[in-house]
Structures are given as structure tokens and as C-alpha cells.
Specification:
two-stranded antiparallel sheet, 532 residues, SusD-like_2, Serine Threonine Protein Phosphatase 5, Tetratricopeptide repeat, single chain
């Protein structure tokens, strides 16, 4: 019997890995078979531990995303059955386990690092800074779906010498976790600007880092992009408004000091080089497209928007139903289950393009990308009254989104898909026409509310099923775009929830600490940043 938030997985450690493409096939030994660790190896253990929840994999997409986040954002269509707004317990627990597996690895890294003398700590500082940024990224993700979670005391079983009772972890509030991480990320951003590595540790960092391949500038961009994302998330919280605006202004006004991801070439992601290693997206097909009914079916609102505005991403992201005569149709969330089923069975429903998405075993593990950053910048500039910069960031974000999906398509190894052909990449001319169209054109929106709706819609289109956590967070925070859902009168949860509840295993084995949050642990309790 074990409490999840102090979980310490057997075999926390990894052997040395290489980021050279030719060596990926032998790069990832089974961590359960490794018996000792170093700071360098343990750093890779942190990154490796939750890779299947970064790369698009079967368990994540099939047990979690198809039953919760993706239908809540209408990134996919879903049958109107009773209970459709109650997150599946297995899917929620899987995400929870993944996070605390990673946290256990991180605590072991802290433990090993703390045992080193000062000179060795100085040499290995980059491993601690980079691992902390990665952990904070995934901490924000868990906070954004659960609210209060065990954080500051979580994962301490090994550190506390195996003393179970001493290691039970309190729940920290979502707002306090955000404040703590924002403070620490600012510290890390400063430290990264002053860090230097000797040749030996530069090589070691390149070897162990399969995300940014030892590129310190990329880790600076990751750090500040994460800060920007978090600061924008809390921009409507009264107690954090001033901080949000001042720190975003500082980041965007000092690119040399606080670089962020600006172009798709700078995207933070796990790239797949060899599908015969553990770093692959082979589970994407079964996770997204194996259900037969939903998981990869298109929602009506998204398809209608893309059809109406001649979105150049439409044929890259979707393919028409087998009997739809080339037309893109989505599932109507307000239709009855019988009507929805008949539409699907008749081959009339579009699905996510299999060449680009599910059958693409080289699909990267998306973490932060340039379109996302520019759409966040557009929101900030609009909020602070700089319409010209908002327009530029908005249009840049859209252009980069098309480039992003063109690039994803170019990576595909999918072949011979029955009833489908490889889509043609979007052109610059199609992007220009899209930006000038009535439903997208910035200049035709006459109020800030209309312009914010444009930004929110483009975030929603860009994120779709690829960045589901960002999609659900922004949809809840902005209440845009406006989506319609059928009311489930046969269930207590009649509409999509605004958070997940804490998994039952944690409730059972961390009862005393859970009692402090029990009253607010409801599907209807909004996150602190969800104030609209």
C-alpha cells in the first residue's frame, strides 16, 4: 500500500545517453535495471520518467485525453452519453502517477546533488537548474487540472530515509505554488545568464539532455517562455495583476536577458530520431485513433470555423469522412446520440489526418512552441493597449502555426493509409488569404473583446489535440471561444467540469492532509486564475 505523492519508483536511475541521432537506438536502457546514479544520470531520469506524457502515447491519449480534456474543448467529437462530463478515474490517476514518478526522480536528484561538495555542485549546477524548469512546467500542468496538490513536501520518502509517516505530504494551494514557481523561475533565469560550463561538463550535459541537447540558450528560452505562460495565466487574478504585467513587460522588453521561444526552429520539444528507441510516438495511433468511434473524430465547432475561414491547416489536421465526398464535417455536440452515431456510421465525419497525427511515429513531444508564445504576446499587448504589436504577434502566431503543422507533416513515416492521401502543405499565399478573411482579419474586429476572441480562437485551433492542457486551461480562463454542450440531466455533473478531483488512491492514503482540501475538491470548483 503506498501513497502516490511520496511514491519512489524502484530503479530511479538511467545510464548515460547520447543525443546523436545515430546512437539513439542504444541510448535508453531500462531504468529499473540500473543500480546506482550520479547527478548527470539522475537528471536524465527526471526527463525520462514522464516521457510518455510528453510524447503522444497510447495510455495518455486513450485513457485520459479522449475521455476528458479533448471533448471538453471540443477538439474532438464525442457521443452524448450519460456521464460524459465525469473524468475517468483511471485516466486521472495515470496523470497523477506520472507526475509523482517524475517528482520522486527529482527529489533523488536533489538528494544526490546536496551530497556533493561545493566545487562539484558548482560544476553540475546546470543539471539542477534545467531539471527544476522541467519539473515546474509539469507542476503547472497538474495544478491547472487539480488546483491544490502535494508539492513542497512531495516525493520525500527516499530523502527521509524511507520513513513513511514522516513523508506524508501536505497539499499546497494552487496560488501559492504559482507564486513559488514564478519566484524561483526568475532566480533560475538570472542564474542561467551567469552560468559557464567547462568542456567536460558541457559534453556531459549534451549527452544527458535529450530535450535541448545541452543548449543553454534553449534552456533560457524554456525558462522565460514558461514564466511568460504562467504570468499570462494569472493576468486576471487581482492579487497578481501587477506582477503579471510588470514581469511580462520585463521579459518582452529585454530579449537579450530574458530570451523566449520566438521561432519554430527554437521550439522546446522532444524530437524523435529513431522509432526503435524508447523515444518514439508509436503509441499515438492506438491512443488517438483506435477507438473506432471517437478519440480522433472532429468536433463541429472546430470544423465549421476552419471551413468558414478557409483555414490552410484544415487538410493538414483533418481528413474527410470516407463517404463525405471530400467535405469536412464535425460531430454536433447538441445532436442526439442516435443522430451522432448515424452520421459517424455513414462515413460522414472528419477525423484527424492520420498522416500528420496518429500514424506519424515521428510526431514530437510538444512542450512550448513559437505560435503559442506569439499568441500569448498578442493577448498581453492587447490587454496593455498596444494594438499594433498585438496585431503583429497575432498574425505571426497564425503564420507560425501553419508552419508548425507543415513541419509535423514533413516528418511523417506513415504510408499506404486506406482511403487517405498525404495532404499538400499549406502555402504562404493561403496563409495571407486566411489572415485577410473576414473571420480572422484583425482590423475588422472593432472592440478589444472581439480581438481577444480572435486570439482565443486561434489558440484553440492551434492547440487542438496536440496541446490539450493548454487548450483546456485557456478555454476555462477566457471563456472563449464560446462552445455549446448538451446538458447531461441524468448525471449530477451536467456540463463539463472546471477541474479534476484528487484521485481516490491519494484520498485513501493521505487522508489527514487531504482533509484540508476536501471541501473544495469538486468538479465545479474553479481554479484561482479562472475568474471570468
Amino acid at each position: 500500500m503506498k501513497k502516490i505523492s511520496i511514491l519512489l519508483v524502484a530503479g530511479l536511475l538511467l545510464g548515460t545517453v547520447s543525443c546523436k541521432e545515430s546512437e539513439f537506438a542504444e541510448a535508453y536502457p531500462n531504468p529499473a535495471k540500473i543500480s546506482e546514479s550520479t547527478v548527470e544520470k539522475q537528471f536524465t531520469g527526471v526527463l525520462y520518467s514522464n516521457r510518455e506524457y510528453v510524447l503522444p502515447g497510447y495510455t495518455h491519449y486513450f485513457t485520459t485525453l479522449r475521455l476528458s480534456l479533448n471533448p471538453y474543448t471540443q477538439a474532438i467529437g464525442r457521443l452524448n452519453q450519460s456521464g460524459l462530463y465525469v473524468p475517468g478515474s483511471a485516466g486521472v490517476e495515470n496523470v497523477w502517477y506520472s507526475y509523482y514518478d517524475m517528482m520522486a526522480q527529482y527529489r533523488e536528484l536533489q538528494k544526490i546533488y546536496a551530497s556533493k561538495p561545493a566545487d562539484q555542485q558548482a560544476d553540475r549546477k546546470i543539471f539542477m537548474l534545467a531539471a527544476t524548469v522541467y519539473v515546474y512546467d509539469h507542476t503547472q500542468r497538474l495544478v491547472d487540472v487539480h488546483g491544490a496538490i502535494p508539492f513542497t513536501q512531495a516525493g520525500m520518502l527516499s530523502t527521509n530515509g524511507g520513513e513513511y509517516e514522516k513523508s506524508t505530504a501536505k497539499f499546497d494551494t494552487a496560488e501559492s505554488i504559482y507564486a513559488f514557481m514564478l519566484d524561483d523561475l526568475k532566480r533560475i533565469a538570472t542564474e542561467l545568464n551567469g552560468i559557464t560550463l567547462n568542456a567536460g561538463y558541457q559534453k556531459s550535459f549534451q549527452t544527458q539532455d535529450f530535450i535541448n541537447k545541452g543548449d543553454i540558450t534553449a534552456w533560457k528560452r524554456y525558462t522565460n517562455s514558461l514564466r511568460l505562460r504562467m504570468l499570462n495565466r494569472v493576468s486576471d487574478v487581482e492579487s497578481m495583476k501587477a506582477r503579471s504585467n510588470s514581469e511580462i513587460a520585463e521579459i518582452l522588453g529585454n530579449a537579450a536577458t530574458y530570451p523566449i521561444v520566438e521561432t519554430n526552429a527554437q521550439n522546446i520539444q522532444i524530437n524523435v530520431f529513431d522509432i526503435n528507441t524508447d523515444i518514439n510516438s508509436k503509441g499515438f495511433q492506438a491512443g488517438l485513433a483506435s477507438d473506432g468511434w471517437y478519440g480522433n473524430t472532429a468536433g463541429k465547432a472546430m470544423i465549421d470555423n476552419m471551413n468558414a475561414n478557409k483555414d490552410p491547416r484544415l487538410p493538414i489536421l483533418f481528413e474527410p469522412g470516407a463517404n463525405a465526398a471530400g467535405k469536412f464535417n464535425g460531430i454536433d455536440p447538441l445532436a442526439t446520440e442516435a443522430v451522432q452515431t448515424a452520421q459517424f456510421n455513414a462515413g460522414q465525419v472528419a477525423i484527424y489526418n492520420r498522416y500528420t497525427t496518429s500514424n506519424n511515429q515521428f510526431f514530437p513531444g510538444v512542450i512550448i512552441n513559437a505560435p503559442q508564445m506569439n499568441l500569448i504576446k498578442a493577448e498581453y499587448y492587447l490587454r496593455t493597449g498596444n494594438d499594433a504589436l498585438a496585431k503583429t504577434a497575432y498574425e505571426t502566431g497564425i503564420t507560425q502555426s501553419v508552419e508548425f503543422y507543415n513541419k509535423i507533416l514533413s516528418l511523417t513515416n506513415a504510408t499506404g493509409i486506406t482511403g487517405s492521401t498525404i495532404p499538400t502543405p499549406a502555402t504562404s499565399a493561403s496563409v495571407a488569404a486566411y489572415l485577410a478573411g473576414d473571420g480572422v482579419n484583425w482590423s475588422k474586429a472593432t472592440t478589444n473583446a472581439q480581438k481577444l476572441s480572435l486570439i482565443a480562437t486561434q489558440k484553440w485551433l492551434h492547440y487542438n489535440v496536440v496541446q490539450p492542457y493548454e487548450n483546456w486551461a485557456d478555454l476555462r480562463r477566457l471563456d472563449m471561444p464560446v462552445l455549446s454542450f448538451q446538458t447531461d440531466n441524468a448525471n449530477n455533473q451536467t456540463l463539463p467540469p472546471v477541474k479534476w478531483t484528487i484521485p481516490g488512491n491519494e484520498v485513501t492514503y493521505n487522508t489527514a492532509n487531504y482533509e484540508t482540501v476536501r471541501a473544495t475538491d469538486k468538479l465545479t470548483t474553479k481554479l484561482f486564475w479562472d475568474v471570468k
